[in-house]
Amino acid sequence: MKYQIITILSVLVLFTSVNIFGQKAINTAADSFFKQHVKNGQVNYKGIKDNPEALNNLVEQIGNYKSQGKESDFSFYLNAYNVLVIKQVVENYPLDSPLSIDGFFDKKTFLVAGEKITLNHIENEIIRPTYNDARIHFALVCGAVDCPKLTNGAFTSENLESKLQSNTINALNDKNFVKYKDGILAISKIFEWYKADFGGDEAAFLNFINQYRKEPIPDGTKIGFYEYDWSLNKQ
Description:
Order of helices and strands: HEEHHHEEHHEEHHE
Shape: globular
Strand content: 5-15%
Distance between the termini: 62 Å
């Protein structure tokens, strides 16, 4: 009986160690991948297509990931979404826009943590309802020019809060993302598409934006939405 207990404990320790190593391995691989192929928010899709081994290995790790709990899974799913956007673009490269691919967000499935799911499922069925954090909209990058900029580093459990915060600050102070001039404000349609996440109305949008602005926009400013540029965010 004592031998059986020791054996079971040994297996559990080994299983836990493998899972933790797997999580760290994914973070390390994703961080290296983004650092190599992302610059100023633009992705070197051609370079990745010419040498796809790192991407393919990363995608395989994403498929085999085992849940590590709510906080660890948060960084995992953010990285997984961004990697799988790149994977799908690379599979179809060259192209001018992710929308050139039928079902880019809602039909094409990938193996993610053992489940075949779409990009929309990752965002709208896992990340948004589980974490209820509007800052994710400045972390998930859809492969288009008017998305918030993809950073050249991965999310981890350790940097998650600081990276979500810095991504949001950078986006909402970017004059090409929040366009405010001569008392006129035009913002991304991300606010319109996910309005409930940002409070549901223009006053709430402005309040959210001003939490992160270095130069707040005056209360009562009328808000418009500029047309979303779906051109590919390629180098």
